[in-house]
Amino acid sequence: MTQGAQRWNHVNFAVAPERLPLIEECIDTLFGWEKFVAKPYLVGYRLSDDMHEAALYFRPVPASAALHLALDRLRTQDPGLDTALHTLDGIEGDWADHTGFMTASLAEWEDRLALARRLERERPDLAIRVVDVLRPGDGRAQTDYLYQAFIRLGLLGPLRNTFEMQARTA
After folding, report:
1. pLDDT tens for each residue of 31-45
2. Which value, to the nearest 10 degrees, does the dihedral of the CA atoms of residues 103, 106, 112, 117 take?
């Protein structure tokens, strides 16, 4: 990286406070990232050894819960809103807002994808859904070396709730 270049160093999610313990369990179980802070007001994970890159935070924000309740209420009253949220929930993973990360190997990617599918079936309380999987050679993959799995975490709410898990063979 050239000196002075900018880079992303963290992502923060404002979550409904009552969902934070289950979100923490979901992330711990599904991704296994290093949790380096677990306080009532902040849960944080690192994806690398560098404290200044690749961090993920969850903060309990009551307004997030209020927004989810308002959207649920308004969906019943406004067919256009309901259709828009339903369409976003069903859109291809690569077109939705998402946060991407790279696994260390294809084997890890396959293991985590299998775990996500198992949790989707066996732990509905975690609200995990594998939205899409792209593999080289499937006719839909972007490249001949990039594996992509889009995993939606419904506990985060109806928006910005998707993680793109990648692996490369080149």
Report:
1. 989 999 999 999 999
2. 130
